[in-house]
## 1
Amino acid sequence: MSVRRPWVQALRALARNRAAVAGIVVIAILGFLVAAAPLLTSYDPMQQNLSSALRPPSAEHPLGTDNLGRDILARIMFGGRISLLIGVLAVSIAMAIGVPLGLLSGYFGGWVDMVIQRIADMMLSFTTFLLALALVAVLGVGLRNVIIATGVGVAPQFIRLARGLALSLREQAYVEAATGFGVSDLMILWRHVLRNSLTPLIVYATLNIGITIIVAAGLGFLGLGVQPPTPEWGTMLGEGRDYIFHASYLATFPGLAIFLAVLAFNLIGDGLRDALDPNLRA
Amino acid sequence: MRGFALYMGHRLVASVITLLGVAFIVVALVRLLPGDPARVIAGLQAGQEEVDRIRATLGLDRPLLVQYGLFLEDLVHGDMGESARTNNSVVSEILTRLPFTLELAFAGTAIGAAVGILMGVAAATRRATWVDHLTSTVAVIGVSIPVYWLGILLIILFAVNLQWLPAAGAEHLSSLILPSFTIGMFSVGLVSRMTRANLLDVLGQDYVRTAHAKGLTDRFVIYKHALRNAFIPVLTVIGLQFGTLLGGAVLTESVFAWPGIGRLLVDSIFARDFPMIQGIVLTYATMFVVVNVITDLLYTVVDPRVRLYG
């Protein structure tokens, strides 16, 4: 007797999706390179060595060295810790802000909905990147502020999504039944609405990790993100752009790392969406 | 028609409220500056007199709501203060730079829409062939590639190696090609996905089958009947996309040294020129809101059946 477990079925569907599997493989490889960085390279990502500056890729330095003679591969591996951490933490912040607001908005409706939706409208009209940029302009640069700014920038997307979910879930019979039994609204939100929203929220979170990595690295690229000498993919790309005329590998490799990570998260997100909830297809 | 007027009325009121809110945030943000905002804006070298002057002109010595009121009053008179860096009027500097940003945004939108729709049609009409796979690959690359990296790659290829196109600046019409392609690439991904999905949907409808039965050619059916109906959701995507595009324009302008308001914004952030930052952010938000209202309007024009209003 096998019980139809939706998660098992979804994972099977995901395993059949070649693009999603490719995404998982890329993230696994990136995750390994990043986690095992100290074991895989003997170079210190911060250690300057001006005598070996701007060396093109070679056996000694597979991706070359930067303008300060630092090994680019080592910097990309260590930088990945920061870039991926920002992506995951910023999405967590966005969810922590957006999901409760969105659920309250959709579940209660009325003036609560109106106020929260106007706030979401305002945030959306800044657009994600500009909102993050404006916040960094005020809060200042650096790792912590980049995570906060990027998370807040993406938050309105989660307000919208969670609101839509709550709107449809509150019409469900089991929610009405719970209301009839006198279960409190907050309990219903927690036990029924939030739990049944998890699937689309996970899909959306995966798709948004890519966006937050792009936004955070974009701040770094402008020089308004994680500050040198700390390696971070966007900051490295921004520093490398000055050398595109004679040492283009300074810019191409960090950018490739950003692109691969974002692409992989998008492929996994698309795959999860198709596997878990085909109705979500945009 | 009354329903439409009523709907647009609601829409406009909501938009004005949103923009008033954005203006409030923009004014309040300055107060989040660590320490004394007036001191931060004036810079460390400035004398106390200068700091006091800035505090007074920005209304930082008054309650937040009064400061907001003063900001709105000036705004009504077309005044957003003076740049802390150049002492020029914020409005006139923005107006000088804005045409460049709009040029880039429209060129990017046009490329994104044209290439995206063509790719979407190709994919939908050759479903499950290599054309379909290729376009979906290009689409996912388009939404995943950071504009700043794509821009740099294009510069390395077309400006440094091939030397076909200028790497930076806005002196010639050819300067527009690389930045607008860079910025349009993201839309290509979204628009082609949307076109493909909608076209496949429409191609299964009765009237398309009828048109085929009448002996009309595939090309005629797709372009005269199907695309027109598949176009409406695509139009919304293009409109909504415009906002993301404006955000991306900040980065693209920085990559290509394009003299629009995006680059001005980044320069102003480095210079801690807050009156200018406020003005530019408000300009961006206004463009975003206006484009969304226009998209809604077009929506009803393209398809008279669409009744967004009750």
## 2
Amino acid sequence: MTTVVEPTVATIHPTPKAADFSWARWLVVTQKEFTDLLRDRKSIFWALFAVAISGPLMVGLMYWLTTAVMDRVDKLTVPIVNAQFAPDLVRTIERQGMKIDADPPDYESRVKSGELDFALVVDTDFTESLAAGRPARITLITERSRDRSAPLAGRVSSVLNAWANQMGRERLILRGVSPVLAHPVQVEELDLATPEQRGSRLLQFMSFYALFAGLMGAIAAALDVTAGERERQTLEPLLTTPVTTLELTLGKWLAVTGINLIAVTTSLLGFVLSLHLVPLDRLGLPFTFGLAEYAGFMAVLTPFACMVPAVLLAFGAAGKTAKEAQSSLQMGVSLIGLLPLMSMVRQTRAPWWDAWVPVNGQYAVLNKVLRAETIATHEWAAMLAIPALIGVVALYALSRRLGDERMLAGR
Amino acid sequence: MIEVCDLCKAFTVRERRSTFALRASTRNVVAVDRVSFTAHDGEVTGLLGPNGAGKTTTLRMLSTLLTPDAGQARIDGADVASEQPRVRRSLGVLGDAKGLYWRLSARENIAYFGRLHGLAAPQAARRADQLIDELGLAALAERPTQGFSQGERMKVAIARALVHNPQTVLLDEPTNGLDIMATRSMRELIRGLRAAGKCVLFSSHIMQEVAALCDRIVIIDRGRVVFNGTPSEILAASGKRSLEDAFVQLIGSEEGLFA
């Protein structure tokens, strides 16, 4: 039993899609998403805290490690067994400002266990052998696999070698032979690294952490505004209002980008502050992270930090729930994290196209900024063009997806 | 006024026999099959039918969320498929999904939708205040909606749908999950809308709900309209004494009554 519908008299006025876009609504969506995201205090706090603390933590750790090694090398105590047979050696070591620990008991097991970093054992016939011109033996007992002992053993070993060489030269001179004869070939090393470059090698990780901030800062927010919207069942009511999917897409992107830029800025500020607090020159590290480096980093990271939310949003919308989206994102993020590691361990020179690979290109240019090298125009072009291209494609995909009927039907 | 003429919608459902099956078979499910009816201004029209009859799909097509496969639907003369912006401006929709933003307050939730409907900020705020007063939400207005009860959430969702003072109001199962007091106040609200001359279309699977409110009833079963008329016409046509018996006879089962 059906009734016939009354004939309609109204004429159709199809409105072109592009004309529907409203800047005002875009900003309303942005403002709402931004407020909503900032209300999620716990997630925001932990995301920002993690990226802000990683820089200072790293610099602090490096400083602590280096000073600790330097302190131990400076205040070195040298355990010597049978020191009475080599009084000259004892005097040389003491002149270097080191203390002597004569005849330590159980030295071998204590070196093995790490209680002693090394031990010197002077042969009992050392004095006689030295006087007779036979090779007189001193044994340096070390444990090579232990990283923290290596610099100390190295220091003592170099003192020993210098002392032995000195003695050898004196003997040659006494016999009327020039010591130069004993060194027919002179090997010299010329290191082309400028002081800045040597310092920046230690802080190479900084570029990695800055990129990491641009990635991690947006994840929670991107999931919340896409998969979270589906999970809370707020997408359907939203789509019954005049707001277009393009306005929604751009609004969400702008809000998440805002959060991401805060994360990147915080992370870099953390680096700058900690590098200024730590007396790097005390470490012989002529490394600076001044205004020029900060500006360079921001110039590279800003386009990157705008691209990442677009990609994350496009992926996030694929999940019906935040949890589902998170598990698919996790793989993508760890893959992206591996990219710069690849160039860190690569032995050959980077191929020409490396600059155009997202993440890798950024990593390379950030390192150049740290090394105070000039960055070519085509590299700057890549820093802008690649994120812009990827971002536009991702945002287009997201806007198509938000308007897709399956988003509602396949709930 | 809502005019619906031969509206059709089918979905493709992908199914796997088991978790490890490589191939998914697809199946075509017709959700709405040539549905036609008219809902007038100043009247409450009930869309009645058992679960899965096609009520939500019909309402989603009317609210421009789904595009009809065939047929036409017009809201005050505007076609839902080709004139989306106009339709969306004139519609207030309380859809199947009634989610709120948890971290925003009731007032912010309502005002946000007002802004999306093109109201200026002060205008949206004033309208939100007015609806908050009308619905008795004043004590909760500034609280985040996370801790709200089912009835309080429904009130915020309804206020959000009415914020731009729409002429046509679509309500998908508006009393679902509400207690008796909340159901009564929802009925009051719907009567108020009718008194204000609005066109109200609401869906329900509960006969009593529809009988208590509607001037006109459209009964849908398996995607098709099986009856369209006033409550007294239903009784006359079925020859039954109660609407409940008439409903059972029309849809040929008692399914909808206990769902």
## 3
Amino acid sequence: MRGTTPNLLTISLALMVSPSLRAGEVALVFTNPVITSLPEPFFPTMFKARDLDGDNIVDLVVAGRDPDDRLLTLKGVGNGAYVPLQTLVAQGFTDWVELADIDGDGRDDVITAWRGALPRVVAYRGLPGGQFEEAAVLAGIELGTGRDPQGLAVADFDMDGDNDIAVSSYIGQSIEIFSNTGGMTFERVTRVRLASFLGGYGYPRLLHAGDLDGDGDLDLVANEIGGSRIATIRNEGGSFARAVEYRAPLIGDERPGISAVTLADIDGDGDLDAYSPALLLYSTQKIVYFRNDGTGRFTERLVGEGSPSGYAFSVELADLDADGDLDAITGAALPGTLTVGRRTSAGDFVFEEDGFYMFGQLIRHIDAIDYDGDCDLDILSIDGPSRAIYTRRNMTPQAGCGGGGVAEVVAKNIAITPEPTGALKNVVQPELPTHDRNGDGAVDASDVAVWLSEMSMPISLMRTEKSPNPVVSPTQSTAIVPTTTVPKIGHSESVKGGKR
Amino acid sequence: MIRFPLFSALFTLFVTAVAPGQCPTTGDCREVHETSGCEMPECCTLVCEYDMFCCETGWSESCVQAALELCEDIWCPAAGACSVIHPTPGCDAFECCDLITTLDGWCTYAAWDEICALEAEALCGEARCDVAIPAVADESEPCYDRLNDGWGIGLESGRITLSCGESMKGRITGGGPRDLDWFTLDGSARRRIRFSIEAEFPVELQYLLGDSEGPSEVKWLVAEPICGGERSIVLLTEPGVSSLILGAGNGERPYRSGLDCDEIDPDFPPDPKDPPPLQLYGVRWVASIACLELGDINGDGSVSAADLSLLLTAWGPRALGSAFDPRAADADLDGDGMIGAADLSLMLAGW
């Protein structure tokens, strides 16, 4: 590591409103969060939001790294808070979860990969009322589930009418693809190796499906956190080509760590582009945009502003102000921050920072969903070390269908309300890893990204002296949006998955 | 014995003088059994040296506890056939288990998955061999350095230029980053070359198209068994930046361990307490490149009726993606994915 980290906590805690608003444009405004705390020692990694129990309120399925081997479903109560719905028994950590109908009965099932020494892809079949059956193994090592499957994509890859599965093998450095043959059985389609030309470890993490080349079938994109690359794998009528890999661009003179990737049509040209958080050690955090030329090749790489502090780990692009372009929500680590950037125009990749919120330690996952039914997109984020889900309601005046005057009043109140600082007073910036975690011979941002990605417990240095649990307490916003803490969920019966 | 067990040189010298003769015997070292000793040689010796009772009377609970503490990384042999996938680490043939778990750590602590089984099938029972290295140019890369590793590592590195008719020798070693040797190819036009390689280790050879920033596309990757003599691939190279990359692996994963560098890095000399370098296989290779006519599909040095026959046999669409095997005749002379009249025309031009 070259010198000491420059990412000091030079943070403004106030919600900032950009002075550079175009005519008719308003700043993005969000409430302080409703916090749902998850039980120890659950370390949430990702969630999937959907109405599971049919009450028209969004519920969650939460994947996580849990020594007690649990997967959680949470019931939304309507105000952004969640209470326990069901504890599902896993065998090993889970990093990603999907909701899709895998058995053809018309109900969503929970699909995930159990990591650990005996990796398996499993489904919890959906039951009425938002409940799920015990896990059924869809693919075990006999089918070649890879080594440490972390990311997961569920889609009809062979276009035969049912959902197939692809998983990213973090240690195996490959993508494993399985075809649904009906009756909850799967057969192996192929293994696609990634990063085979690297001397270090590529460590593919996340995986998403989308039609990149416009040929009607679903291709795959993955991020290689160890290689600072993303990879595309083209579907050619149900069989998959070898990967094509793209490196994150140099930003200044630094190669960023790429801890995630997501697909969206960023430039509005009808094809799917890719974007990633860009973790940097020596400047503010960025977002990298890989522009699709329409043929599935990313021929241009652009860089937008992400978070002014911390280390970028997650990012979501969504139209938060309903103006037709995609705005950015960047999640960071150390400290855990959320930065909301308003896209200045659909034709560029420039964001004006409208909100900067600091709370926990590591924002692992972000989603923009309309949880309150007012037609605009609210922000849900998950903090692994803090074991918390934060829900922030979108109060941007021009967004939504139900905010109206109330939204403006609330926005005014919130705009002058600082984020809570209680848990941050004694924050100590932890020592960053100084060894070559991806084995590529250099210590750089990708090693920090790998380190953050592999974290499965709170960072002790980030804890305050008085509060062993870094989840912060309710805030001034309580009067507007009540803060709720989910009661501890009892330990489930679990079967250890072996050495992790 | 294929290899000298990892980190056990001094230990072996020590225990052979004091350990009882009952090691190994039968029974899992991690389970109580009536007979003395257990089946994992290193673990059995460790435990009996610690508690002679275990090798004199029976393998009691205290022996099991000692094994669990002393033998944390020793898993061989273990239940399950080496060539068969099973959900526990290790396998039942000591030498094979010992070899594969040294090459592939996953097989040591996780499940014996299809890659472990594949490795066992390919490598167990195969003797190592020495390649006769001719007096040709050397890649000039100390094995503790990474000078010819293209953009495959996080540092600046170069590529080997090997011209038509030239040969070169070199070495591949493991570690982090593992060693790769990149050969730069003439990208001025579509060309046919014959790349020949002979190596003392399991070879992975891949053809990479593109530059360091991407798109980087591995057009194909093949693995060759050890000690198979010289292997040649007659390939068509694409215009633009492309590289042939030589490394150690089995086609499913690279090998990073068991191919230690045995030279002393003057900047980072080894600690005397470090275990000696472990080379399960030799680390040397020798390679050559021959430049051929585009239409010389079989790579025999001339464009002839045999090549025409191969082209006509392959008429139609060419296999793409992972289905493409560079070791099969490639008659797509113009690279359009179809073997047809245009390719025939190109062939006849070079007749």
## 4
Amino acid sequence: MRLPPFRPLHLLAALLLATPLLQGCATPPPADDKEAMEEFRQTNDPAEPTNRAIYAVNNALDVMILEPAARAYRGLTPAPVRSSVHNILSNLGSPVRLAADMAQGKPRLAGDTLMRMVINTTVGLGGVFDVATDWGYPHHDNGAGTTLAVWGMEEGPYLVLPIFGPSNPRDTGGFLTDMALDPFTYTSGPSWSIFSYSRIGATALDERERHIDDVDQIRKQALDSYATFRSLYRQHRAAEIARARMGDKSWTKPAWFAPSR
Amino acid sequence: MLSRRQILTAMLAASAALALPRLGFAQSVAGPDAVRQATDFVGGVTGKLVGIVNGGAALAEKQRALQAIVDASVAVDDVARFCLGRFWRIATPEQQKDYLRLFREVLTTNITGRVGDYAGVKLTLSRSQPREDGVMVGTTLERPNAPASPVDWLVEIGAGGPKIVDVIAEGTSLRLTQRSDYASFIARNGNNVQALIDAMKQQASR
């Protein structure tokens, strides 16, 4: 079987272009109801009807395809295998993380990322083992969405992207930037296509498997799961960005290095 | 810049606030004593939680013990009112009563229902910070086969002693998330609080 060449940007552009076709706008509450108006402003979801429609499709795809696949993945593989898969994927994401650390002016975090990449690719056998954490270079997440936030860009209204889920204009921009900065985006040829498709599939399985219990819980407890995911996404991003703004306090000095007093 | 007079006034206000709890007022500025009190309190509660979850008792026994902790250490009615937001004032006294009862029931079921998921859990105190609305007591949650994650406990010190009013897991506040869930549900049901109460009745009976 021949796979079509992997063109992530084409796929994403198609998805984004399809979005306005469903465009609908949320009706603001009457202007004299101050509290309701304030809530509407804080929720900042003017495209709510469209977002809800996309959320419903994403949710159905998840229930039919991704969730059963993630459960099978959990059932069929022992935890150490899943953690190795996660480590490999995380290591592949290092260049993008390094770019974000540097763009945010965080030399220590950038040093951590670079050392992690070098150590885990070599001693960690291509990222299978996360040796770097034990050696004093812990993992941290970072990306262009956070960079844009640190640079002062507002998040903008809430958006639900087809397939990719909760976002906003800033994080969508960050997502596209991350894709453009990823060296693997520029590979071509049939074997690289297989690599890219496998990476996407594995990423989806890995991410979904790690959230099985949380999503189960939300589906069971939330009266309006759309609003719950919206709130969780916003809060989670705000916390990540607050942490990124705090500065560059991590120690590049490895754990085994005796501190000189 | 703050003038010396403003600083003095603030210090006076802070010391007055520290004296207020005895009169039955919630204090507005958390001082070092409050921070210590809240930290000790959370240390005690999390210690008991972990003891129950990892203990050898039967499931029903564990759930009963957990419920006792929730009743004793969480300001459930305050959290409930927060979660209903602006709809609290729209609700009739009868609806308010129903809502408070159901909220307690649903919260307790949600917490006790997860006892089994948390086996092997470890909670250690990290850093506590005074907040305008209480003290944020930081802890680190460790579970087998999962990376350590931060869990913060917002503690208010009122007349009845310290009480937990919010839990923030990896930056997401439980009461904020709950409030947006309820607000959106009520708004989509014609701003009718009764719709929420009916839905909660269903949740509680599951």
